[in-house]
Design goal:
Protein name: Prokaryotic-type class I peptide chain release factors domain-containing protein
Family: Belongs to the prokaryotic/mitochondrial release factor family.
Pfam families: PCRF, RF-1
InterPro entries: PCRF (IPR005139), Pep_chain_release_fac_I (IPR000352), Pep_chain_release_fac_I_sf (IPR045853), Prokaryotic/Mito_RF (IPR050057)
Distance between the termini: 21 Å
Shape: flat
Oligomer: single chain
Strand order of the largest sheet: 2-3-1-5-4-9-10-11
Keywords: Protein biosynthesis
Length: about 425
């Protein structure tokens, strides 16, 4: 048939497609078409259950095309006529596809086993063969659990991990400014304590770097270094503006007995390793001053507080948490390095950022992400339109907060998968 190429002559005609990493091997129009279908599906069902996502025909078609591509590459690598210069590029693509294809085939095998069990159960007598039915049901549940795990593995392969997910983090909270400023300051204190509790819940280390109190028991600003497994991954989507609606219980605003609206902001920065960021001492201006907050007998008696200005960028940090000027300087330097590192991170995100407005990873940290309506005892995360009742329990920073964060991570994975498919489409258009 016209256009068909034998396996013997295919290598010479197709290896050129592998000169660029991720190039599509043969039948690229088929993969391109299935990616288009999958993009349409994801846009319509982005917030649905992951099992439903993986059951759609478009994704199945895409994975089958990738599996066939993997098989063809395997055949090519066994061809003696293949030039060594091309063999290396093709081998890289083969290695790149192998984990994805392996998991996809495991899912296919498990699904066939599940279908066979269901068929067997339909032929059993519910009364006389009850024991066999129970055993089959248990086995079917085990297979379905395994399939769900494999779905998760498939997502992990298709969705590249954020390179900063394993980093520790610097978390900062700052009270907003409203006519009833005390409501913002009190709320800022509650949110900061929520994250401290969450760190304990996750068995992380929570080290306060700066803590500037307000007059009526709240917080103007505070920051902490949080260390542990997956800290930045779990906290990165907490960054943004948190809005509160409540009748104040303390402060001047409490006398008015009406609902006040205020805000506070959360900034989450990946903490760099020492090898990631270096600061030249000549680029720093270091000032000392008397601490204003808690700190024991040294407060307002010695210049223990430290302010550091990074002259090239204009970034300013200060620390007055410790009684020792040396310790405050060390902590301030850590905050400065995190801010400089964050600039590099944001630049990289900007270069990779897609045009989709819903992408969690591309939202500005100033965007309003969540509303805490105390009068209705309702919390709303605006990014995924998810509501939580019992704000008091949420602010404990335990299971309910962890559940919301995991939902955000799941949603972000689906969005990243959509972006991955869009990149495939773009690559397909360029190769066409």
């Amino acid at each position: 048939m016209k256009g068909e190429v034998s396996e013997e002559t295919r290598p010479k005609q197709e290896t050129e497609l592998f000169r660029a990493k991720g190039g599509l091997l043969g039948k690229k129009q088929g993969i391109f078409a299935s990616a288009l279908l999958l993009e349409t599906y994801l846009k319509r069902y982005l917030q649905h259950d992951s099992e439903a996502l993986w059951k759609n025909k478009a994704l199945q078609k895409y994975l089958e095309d990738i599996s066939r591509e993997h098989t063809r590459i395997g055949h090519m690598l066994h061809q003696t006529t293949l030039e060594e210069s091309h063999r290396a590029a093709i081998g890289l693509r083969y290695a790149e596809l192998s984990p994805l294809v392996a998991v996809f085939k495991e899912i296919q095998v498990a699904e066939r086993e599940a279908l066979e069990l269901k068929s067997m159960c339909s032929n059993l007598d519910n009364i006389n063969e009850r024991q066999l039915l129970d055993l089959a049901a248990d086995e079917l549940q085990s297979i379905n659990d395994m399939i769900e795990i494999l779905y998760g593995k498939l997502i992990q392969i298709l969705v590249p991990q954020d390179k900063y997910d394993d980093n520790d983090a610097i978390l900062e909270v700052t009270a907003g400014r409203t006519t009833g400023g005390d409501i913002c300051q009190q709320f800022t204190k509650e949110v900061f304590e929520m994250y401290e509790n969450y760190a304990n819940y996750k068995s992380w280390v929570f080290e306060v770097l700066n803590y500037t109190t307000a007059e009526i028991g709240g917080l103007h600003h505070a920051s902490a270094c949080i260390s542990g497994e997956g800290v930045y991954k779990f906290l990165k989507y907490e960054a943004g503006t948190h809005r509160v609606q409540r009748i104040p219980e303390v402060g001047l605003s409490s006398r008015m007995q009406r609902i006040h609206t205020g805000t506070m902001t959360v900034i989450v920065l990946p903490r760099p390793d020492e090898v990631d960021i270096k600061v030249d001492k000549k680029d720093l201006r270091i000032d000392t001053f008397r601490a204003k907050g808690a700190g024991g007998q040294h407060v307002n008696t010695t210049d223990s507080a430290v302010r550091i200005v990074h002259l090239p960028s204009g970034i300013t940090v200060e620390c007055q948490q410790e009684r020792s000027q040396l310790l405050n300087k060390e902590k301030a330097l850590r905050m400065l390095k995190a801010k400089l590192y964050s600039q590099t991170v944001q630049k990289g995100h900007g270069e990779r950022q897609s045009a989709r407005k819903l992408q969690l990873g591309s939202r500005a940290q100033s965007d309003r992400i969540r509303t805490y309506n105390f009068t209705q005892d309702r919390l709303t995360d605006h990014r995924i339109s998810y509501e939580v009742r019992n704000i008091k329990e949420f602010l404990r920073g335990e299971r309910i907060l962890d559940d919301l964060i995991r939902r955000l991570l799941h949603f972000a994975e689906q969005e990243t998968l959509l972006e991955h498919m869009e990149n495939t489409i773009t690559s397909g258009k360029k190769d066409s």
